[in-house]
Amino acid sequence: MIWGVFVDESGDQGGRSKYYVLTLVFHDQSDSLEEHLARHAKGLRKRGFADTPFHAGPLMHGHGAFENLDLKTRKAYFQLFFIDAQHLPVVYHSLVYRRSEFDGNDALVAKMRRDIASLLRDRLSFFQTFDRVKIYYDDGQTIVAHALYSAFEQALAKSSVLHRTYHASDFMLTQAADLLCALELAAVKFANKEATSTDERMFGSSGTFRKNYLRPLRRKRLAR
Prior knowledge:
- This protein is α/β, with parallel strands linked by helices.
- The chain is built from nine helices and five strands; from the N terminus they run E-E-H-H-H-E-H-H-E-H-E-H-H-H.
- It has helices at about 35-45, 55-60, 70-85, 105-120, 125, 140-155, 170-190, 195-205, 205-220, and strands at about 1-10, 20-30, 90-100, 130-135, 160-165.
- The protein has a five-stranded mixed sheet, sandwiched between helices.
């Protein structure tokens, strides 16, 4: 039995972002995603959307592949993926950090490594029921890669940790990790009254965000 861990981050390793969010999405890879992929593809076709991979940042701001879409269409695309992601057979855990509390990347890496290792140790009996753990991360930021791999190898036997590139059938889960990162970041900003105009245009008021996004989202959190 193989447990997949799909990882994404929100924030830059240069320290310009106020918050740094690291999200880990856990999936029992014996659970097929074919039905979920087919449902999402059907939903895209029904609404006349191109089969463009979900990417929260560009979608919210109207950049990249989404630059020619108006706000109404981008919100509909976001909501479709959010609804479909709720049906995925996954759980997740997010770590949120305020960059001002860390004196450089080394301190942040050390804290992330400790927090990931603690997460794994607290649920060690659960993880030990699986024969292999595969970590899916694109190595986009070295601080995440360092924290991630060292924490898993510290908490679990090295022979149980495999680093894999993405396959087509796994791609929706990498997009789900991106979605969860964006929503957990929005949750922090709404809670601290720091929501941007983009956040409010996409999600509405703080109360609307909690009702329509945060509450459904939190049902997917990894239980202790």
